[in-house]
Amino acid sequence: MRIAFLTAHEGVEQVELTEPWRAVAATGETPQLISTRAGTVQAFNHLDKADTFPVDGTVADVSPEEFDALVLPGGVANPDALRTDPRAVAFARAFFDADKPVAAICHAPWTLIEADVVRDRTLTSWPSLQTDLRNAGAHWVDEPVQVCLADSGPLVTSRKPDDLPYFNEAMLREFGRIAA
């Protein structure tokens, strides 16, 4: 399986990129870093610059059909930038249109709101997004992880870095269902 990790060129919360990446890679699947620009992605540890990561492809150069699932890491700036990029929004929406699994953590559901794919779904997120999600028609819950099976492929959401063990477990379980 090929798993797309979609981020903006900067602002992704490093641990929300690296921990799910390691979890996917440990299963033998192929994670690919897809971004809005070629080159590298600048990650952050909250507000401080962290490491950079090489981009495997851009939303302008790859197709969602090339991937089996999508991971949307958080950070505040990352999904805020993604939701203003029409190609990134279309890339994310295509996974829902194709009934492919999606996993999003922390602030990442902002991109899903822009893609208009949260209506009538149950999600969790960083708490400050709950009003945005409710206004977009979602049902928000305050849980470490939430798996929603409504309408299309599974949507796995989680609140914050502390929830990564739950997020990774649910993500791998749901991604594994399509590999079986």
Automatic annotation (TrEMBL):
<dbReference type="InterPro" id="IPR006286">
    <property type="entry name" value="C56_PfpI-like"/>
</dbReference>
<comment type="similarity">
    <text>Belongs to the peptidase C56 family.</text>
</comment>
<protein>
    <submittedName>
        <fullName>Type 1 glutamine amidotransferase domain-containing protein</fullName>
    </submittedName>
</protein>
<dbReference type="InterPro" id="IPR002818">
    <property type="entry name" value="DJ-1/PfpI"/>
</dbReference>
<keyword id="KW-0315">Glutamine amidotransferase</keyword>
<dbReference type="Pfam" id="PF01965">
    <property type="entry name" value="DJ-1_PfpI"/>
</dbReference>
<feature type="domain" description="DJ-1/PfpI">
    <location>
        <begin position="1"/>
        <end position="173"/>
    </location>
</feature>
<dbReference type="InterPro" id="IPR029062">
    <property type="entry name" value="Class_I_gatase-like"/>
</dbReference>
